[in-house]
């Protein structure tokens, strides 16, 4: 399904866990991205902005999200949108094509309340260990290569979305025997 840039994505468009596309390693996007790719990215970004606006979220019955990958709306494309407040209190708006983590810290972090996902309609208990800092290489909507660094919450979001593009769900990282057990061979601390 193609989305125009002004298409209002709703929760009915979000693919739920169990669908094979969420376990698919997505296909790279041609660079520069096509008009369709950019329009679909715009629709994904619009969803995130709408989902964080109380009035629009109520109107369209949206769950708030900070990131969304293309396969979460049924597109087998290596791209995601993110819209979040970073650790410095600044709003970040990311539209990344073919993103790849090129380096990361040894130190790790996790969200104390676990992670959530627009494709998962249940509460999942447990810690999801993530790298505290990552450096990402990707392409923007103009087809220019960009390199960015993220830490803290931003780093967690980037890893969550790139996992989606690799067919990995956040709960795959939770210890199966003890959901609150953290890796012991690494420095790891709660984000908050």
Explain what you see.
The structure is a single chain. The protein is of the alpha+beta class. The protein has a single domain, classed as Alpha-Beta Complex (Peptide Deformylase). The chain is 20% helix and 24% strand. It has helices at 35-51, 54-60, 152-165; strands at residues 67-69, 79-85, 91-104, 108-110, 130-131, 133-139, 145-151, 188-190. The strands form two sheets. It has a five-stranded antiparallel beta sheet with strand order 1-2-3-6-7. A three-stranded mixed beta sheet has the order 5-4-8, covered by helices on one side. It is globular. The N and C termini lie far apart (39 Å).
- Name the strands of the widest sheet in spatial order: 1-2-3-6-7
**Rg over CA atoms:** 16 Å
Distance between the termini: 39 Å
Please estimate the helix content: 10-25%
The SSE order reads: HHEEEEEEEHE
The domain tally reads 1
Task: Give me the oligomer status.
Answer: single chain
Number of helices: 3
- What is the β-strand count? 8
Looking at the structure, the CATH topology is: Peptide Deformylase
Superfamily (CATH H level) name:
Peptide deformylase
Question: Structural class of the helices, strands and pairings?
Answer: alpha+beta
